[in-house]
Each structure stands twice: as structure tokens, then as C-alpha cells.
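note to self: dont lose this again. the chain is below, predicted strucutre after it. 340 aa total, dont forget to put it in the shared folder this time
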Amino acid sequence: WRRHTVLATAFVLAGASPLLAQKTDIMVLYRGDAITGEVKELNRGKLAYKTDDMGTLSVEWDKVAHLTSVNYFDVEDRFGTRFFGRLAASEEPGDLLVILSDTVSIRMTNIVAISRIQASFWSRLDGYVDLGVDFQKANTNKQLNGAAEVKYRGEKWASRLAGSTYFQDQEGADQTSRNNLSLDGRRLFGNHWSVLVVGTLEQNQQLGLDLRWTIGSGATREFIHTNKMTFLTFATLAYANETYDDEEESTNNIQLPLGADFAFFLFDSPKTDITSDLAVTPILNDWGRVRIDFNARLSYELISDFTIGFRFFDNFDSRPPSETASKNDYGLTFSLGYKF
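---
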């Protein structure tokens, strides 16, 4: 009987597995196409929609008229309000019904994010990798620049790991390098507010900076979040330890980074992605000293997920501890990239 029970269970599971794997969500486009599949997520104006025959589609959100799913989702609108429930189509094109204990109708143009509840960790990651290399025989100039970013967005938490590197070696000139690594985590609250914890590592040979590590905490407020643009501001209180190449001892600082992040993205050809961030950092225990850091990235999609772009950086320190250090470093780099 035990053997028959095991065999029967195996047959039941084998028969049920195709049913469990069936994709039953329905997406209807404004042009009239109805596609059966599985809603994965909505992020930055694009709906990831998995199908059996065409793979995972990346559909511009403003092309979707109706969307239904029996699964449960976390739906966020541009005002920061979040709704939980199943997805259903309204009689009016462009309206989405979120059904739990109550039914809420939301205009789809106001929806900026949809996340599958209990979706895997990996499915909630997105980011990019950029890399540029230059070599000139005439003056044996070698240059390497790269940057990468990975973001995670969950129901209550969000985090970002980002880094960049720049190295140049030229005959008749000193080598120069610049490296940055940052990790931040945010606890998300209503009305686009969040609590922030951040840590950074920085090195800049041009500024004479061997190492600066920083850890701090603060708050962020997102003022704009649409399917084409985001804009947020932040304020943190941080502790930093700095070591300069001509200083025997490191220095400790209490600082107050204030700044903003801006992102703009278009999905009509050419697909464009523009991001920038600005931080103004007064040093509280060295009054009168201010650091300003600005970064900007522009990328165009050449073919599916492969990009070409430019990155600009500018770092300024009004009064560096090292007397021989430069106050300013800036540069423009070109690179090829991949986004995911």
C-alpha cells in the first residue's frame, strides 16, 4: 500500500504540475491584443510580463489598457499610497482594480510600481554595468573606467550597492586613480518618506585622498515618482575618517551631507536613461570646510539591454587637510554598458 500511495502521489503531482505552471494572467493592450502570461513586476514605466511562447516581454506601461491576475501584488501610486490584492480589469480602459477585502479602482497612469508579493529576491533586483577602456601607443596612455549599480526594492525595504573606478597611466605623468563604493538601505514609510542608513568608501589620488570611510543615518523624501521621472532629497548625519597621502595621522569628522537624486527615462527610440546626484557636505567640526560631489550618467540603448553612454563626475573640497592636495577633480568618461 505504501508503494501504491507513493506512485499515486507521483502521478497526481505530475498531472498537477502543468496546471500549476499555467500562466493565467491576461494583459490587453490598447491596440486590442490580449496576451496570456504572468505579471512579474512594474518598474520605471515598464511591465515585465512572462509568456510561454515569447519569453519575458518588456511592455511600456502606457500601452496597457487592462490587466488581470489571480496572484497578490503590492501596487504603489505616484502619491506614495500602496494597495495590496489581486488585479482585475475595469470596464473603463486604463483603470486597474485591486481586490482584497475591498475593491479599489486606480487610474493606471498613476501607478508607478507593481511587485509580486512573495516574489523571489533575485526578481526584485535591477541595475547596470558600464565599462570603458582606452589605449594610445603614441604616449602609452592607458585608461580604464567602470561603474556598476544594483538596486533592490521590497515591500518595506530598499537598498542600493553602487561603485565606480577610474585609472589612468600615461608616459611622463603620474598615475592617477579614483574609486568609490557605497551601500545604503532604506526603511520605506508612507507618503514617500524613508529612513536611510549609508556607508561609503572613497579614494582619489588627484585629491591626495588615500581613504575616506563614512557611515551615517538620516531620512529621504521622494517628491516626484512617475513612470518617466524620479526626484528625491536626503539629509544625513555622518561620521567620517580620512587619510591623506602626506598626512601621518587620519582625521575624524562629523558631517551633514545634504543632497538630491534625479532620474529621467524614456522608452521610445532611442531609449534614454539620465541619472544624477548632488551632495553638499558641510564639515561640522571643521567649520567653513565644505565638500561638493556631483555625478551624472547618460545612456542610450543600442540593442536589447546593451547601452552606450557618458559619465561625468566633479569632486570639490574647499579646504582639504592636506596642503598639497588639489581642491577639485572632475572628468568625463565614455563607456559601453549592460542593464538588467
